[in-house]
Amino acid sequence: MCCWRQWGSVGLLLLLLHLLMMSASSSSGKSPPRCLYCRKVLGKGNSTAFVDVGVQLRVHSSEQVLVVDNGLFQLNLSIPGGDVTGIRYNGIDNLLETLRDDFDRGYWDVVWNWPGKNITFDRVHGTTFEVVTENEDLLELSFVRTWDVSVNETFAPMNIDKRYIIRRGISGFYAYGILDRPEGWPNIDMDQVRIVFKLQKDLFHYMAISDERQRIMPMPEDRETGLPLAYPEAVLLTNPTNQDLRGEVDDKYQYSCENKDNRVHGWICGEPPVGFWMITPSNEFRTAGPIKQDLTSHVGPITLSMFVSTHYAGKEVGMKFRNGDRWQKVFGPVLVYLNSITSEGGVGSLWEDAKGQMAYEAETWPYDFVLFQAFPLSDERGSVAGQLLVADRYMTKDYMWGDSAYVGLAPPGEAGSWQRENKGYQFWTQADKKGRFFIEKIRPGNYNLYAWLPGIIGDYKYDVNVIITPGCAIKLGVLVYKPPRQGPTLWEIGIPDRTASEFSVPEPYPTLSNFLYTTSTQDKFRQYGLWERYMDLYPESDLVYAVGVSDYSRDWFFAHVTRNTYNLTYKATTWQIIFELEEVSQSGNYTLQLALASANEADLQVRFNDPSIEPAHFSTGQIGNDNAIARHGIHGLYWLFSIQVPCSLLGTRNNTIFLTQAQAKGAFQGVMYDYIRLEGPPKI
Ligand SMILES: *[C@@H]1O[C@H](CO)[C@@H](O)[C@H](O)[C@H]1NC(C)=O
Ligand SMILES: *[C@@H]1O[C@H](CO)[C@@H](O)[C@H](O)[C@H]1NC(C)=O
Ligand SMILES: *[C@@H]1O[C@H](CO)[C@@H](O)[C@H](O)[C@H]1NC(C)=O
Ligand SMILES: *[C@@H]1O[C@H](CO)[C@@H](O)[C@H](O)[C@H]1NC(C)=O
Ligand SMILES: *[C@@H]1O[C@H](CO)[C@@H](O)[C@H](O)[C@H]1NC(C)=O
Ligand SMILES: *[C@@H]1O[C@H](CO)[C@@H](O)[C@H](O)[C@H]1NC(C)=O
Ligand SMILES: *[C@@H]1O[C@H](CO)[C@@H](O)[C@H](O)[C@H]1NC(C)=O
C-alpha cells in the first residue's frame, strides 16, 4: 500500500525522522499510526509538556498535500504551491480559517510592476517542491517558483524560493524566502514582499502587539456592516457582533509598529487557550532601517510578516531593479510560534511566553540550523565597535556623549540614505549613554556606518567604508559627529527626534475613536481623523505661534494639514511663527533649521516677513509620499533643510516666518514637523 522508511534513530533520545512517501499509485491517504516512537519530555516551564516524536513528514500525493508533524503540532502545505493550508495544534483541527480556500490561509505575496506601469498583486505559488534537509532534528522544505520568458507578463521576473523549517521540540515553524534575480533579467519595481496568515475568526478574538497594545478585536463581518470612513481601511463599527465595540473605528494602520519594536505580535484564542505569534528575531532583512513602520496583525484575524513595503515611506523605498543587475536576498527566517497553557495564568501568560520565545530566538540568531549558503552562520559574520561623540560648539564647548544614538551599518550611500535603502541588509543598535556601540552578527559585505541621535538634528556617516569579513571584530574607536549648525540658537520649536509626538495631538472625535488609545498618552496619535480636528481648533484662521509665549506641546498642531472647505475642495494653509530679535546682526546669514518628520505630496514654502513674495524665499518643492497623516503614523521619512536667511530679510520688530503647505488637492497632503530652530550668524 505504501512504503515508509526510517531515516535514523539515535540512542536514548529516540529521535526519529520518518519520511513517508505515498506512491503515486496509492489510493489511500492513510499512514501507519504515529505513536510507535513517542516519548514524554518536558518543555520550558511546565506549560509545554509534549510528546516528542521527532519531525515526521508524510506526503499525501493524491491530495496534493504535505503533512509534517513533530508531535507538538501538525502543518499542512500544498504541493507544489507551498501554501500553508492547515495548522493543527492543542486540539484545534486547524488554526487557519477553514472557511477560506486552501490558497487563502497562509501564503506569500508580492506587489510589483514594470517601470511606469500599474502594479500587480501576485500570490506566489511554487511550481516545484523539494525536501532540502532532513535529519532527526529538523526538516526543511522548499517551494520554488521559477521565472522564464514563457511566463513573462504573468509573474514577476524573480525566482522565489519559499522555505519552511520544522524543528524538533519547537511548537511552530520557521519561514524564509530567497528572492533571486540572475543577471540580465527585465527591469521591474517590487514594492511589497510579505507572508500572510488568516486565522479562524470564531476562535481568535484577542490581539497583542505590545505590552500596552492588546485588546479584543472586532469580527471581519463587523467591518462589512460598518460605515467606511475617509478611506476603505477605516470603518466605523455601527453594529458589531460584540456590542462593546459599537462606535469604535477599526483600521489596520492603527496597529502599525516601528521595525525595531515589531518583534512579536499575534492572536490569542480563549478556548482552548492558544496563541499564534509572528516572531521576527532580527531586523537585518527588513528594509529602510529601525524606525520604518509597518503593519503587524489586524482584523481578519490576520497576522503578517512584512519584509518589504512602502508603508509610511512611499514608493521611493520600493525595490527597483534596473540594468539587469544580479541580486539575491534572504528574507527571514521568521518564526510562526504556537503556544498554549494547561494551568491557570490566563491569556496574559501566552503573551509573556511569546515574548520569552522572541527573546530566545533573537539570542540564538543567526540560526545555526539554516544551511542555505547565502545565510552566513555566526562564525561567518563580523562585528563593529566604537564610540560616538557629538561636537556642537554652540551647545557646549566640550564633546558630548552620543547618548542613545542609533548606529547602524547599511549599504554604502549618502548620510541618511539608510531610510530609503531597500535591497541590502542593515544592522542597527542603540548606543549606551556614553555613545558606545557594538554591532554584531553582521553579514560579510561592504557597508557604511550611519548614526543619528535623539535630541540632535541630521545624520552622521563615517566616511570610510566598513568591510565586514567572516569573524572580523572591527574597532573604530572614537567617532565624532558634527551636526548641521551655523550659529547660536535663537529659538527652537519641538524636540529633534524624527517624530511629531511632542506636539499637540488632539483628542479624537468621541464618535470616531479606538478605545485602546483613549487613555494612552504614548499612542494618542493613532486615533482616526485627527487631521480633521485642525479645522475645529483653527476654524477661522491658521495657526500662529509666538516664540517665548506659545508652548509647542499645546500650540503647535502635530500635522500641517490642508483646510477642508466642506464642499470637497481643500485650501492651502499658512502657519506663522512670530519672534522678536534684539538686534539684527549684519555679520552673516541666519539659518533656519527645518526638520520634517513626514511629508506627503507636500510643497512647503517658507517666507520671511512677506507672506506673498513670489517665489517664496525657500521651497522644498514637491516632496514625500509617506501617507503618515492618514495612517496615524506620527512620522514617515525624515527631511532636514538648512535654510540660509540673509539678515536683510529680518528686522528687530516682530518678525514672522510664514510656512505655507501649498499642495492642497486632498485631506492627506501635508507635513509633520520634527523640529525648527533659528540660528544667528556664525560667531568667529
Ligand atoms: C512541573 O512538572 C514536574 C514534573 O511533572 C512537577 O514535579 C512540578 O511540580 C511541576 N511544576 C509546576 C510549577 O507545575
Ligand atoms: C492535513 O491533511 C491531511 C490529509 O488531507 C488531513 O487529514 C489533515 O486533517 C490535515 N491537517 C490539517 C491541520 O489541516
Ligand atoms: C492603470 O491604473 C489606472 C488607475 O487605476 C487605470 O485607469 C488604468 O486603466 C490602468 N491601466 C492598465 C493598463 O491596467
Ligand atoms: C516581458 O514583458 C514586459 C512588459 O510587457 C516587456 O517590457 C518585456 O520586454 C518582456 N520581456 C521578455 C523577456 O519578453
Ligand atoms: C466651494 O468651492 C468653491 C470652489 O469650487 C470655492 O470657491 C468656495 O469658496 C467653496 N465654498 C466654501 C463654503 O468653502
Ligand atoms: C547667505 O544666503 C544667501 C541666500 O541663500 C546666499 O546667496 C549667500 O551665499 C549666503 N551667504 C553666506 C555668507 O553664506
Ligand atoms: C510681538 O508679538 C508678541 C506676540 O504676539 C506680542 O505680544 C507683542 O506685542 C508684539 N510686539 C510688537 C512690537 O508688535
Automatic annotation (TrEMBL):
Top enzyme category: lyase
Listed Pfam families: CBM-like (PF14683), fn3_3 (PF14686), Rhamnogal_lyase (PF06045)
Superkingdom of origin organism: Eukaryota
Any one Gene Ontology BP term: carbohydrate metabolic process
The keyword Secreted is assigned to this record: yes
GO molecular function: carbohydrate binding; rhamnogalacturonan endolyase activity
Annotated signal peptide: 1-26
Stored InterPro entries: Carb-bd-like_fold (IPR013784), Gal_mutarotase_sf_dom (IPR011013), Galactose-bd-like_sf (IPR008979), GH-type_carb-bd (IPR014718), Polysacch_Lyase_4 (IPR051850), RG-lyase_II (IPR029413), RG-lyase_III (IPR029411), Rhamnogal_lyase (IPR010325)
Subcellular location: Secreted
EC number: 4.2.2.23
GO terms for cellular component: extracellular region
CDD domains, alphabetized: RGL4_C, RGL4_M, RGL4_N
Catalytic activity from the UniProt record: Endotype eliminative cleavage of L-alpha-rhamnopyranosyl-(1->4)-alpha-D-galactopyranosyluronic acid bonds of rhamnogalacturonan I domains in ramified hairy regions of pectin leaving L-rhamnopyranose at the reducing end and 4-deoxy-4,5-unsaturated D-galactopyranosyluronic acid at the non-reducing end
The entry's keywords: Lyase, Secreted, Signal
Domain Rhamnogalacturonan lyase residues, every copy: 403-475, 489-678
Family as reported in the entry's similarity comment: Belongs to the polysaccharide lyase 4 family.
Protein name per UniProt: rhamnogalacturonan endolyase
Gene name as annotated: LOC116206051
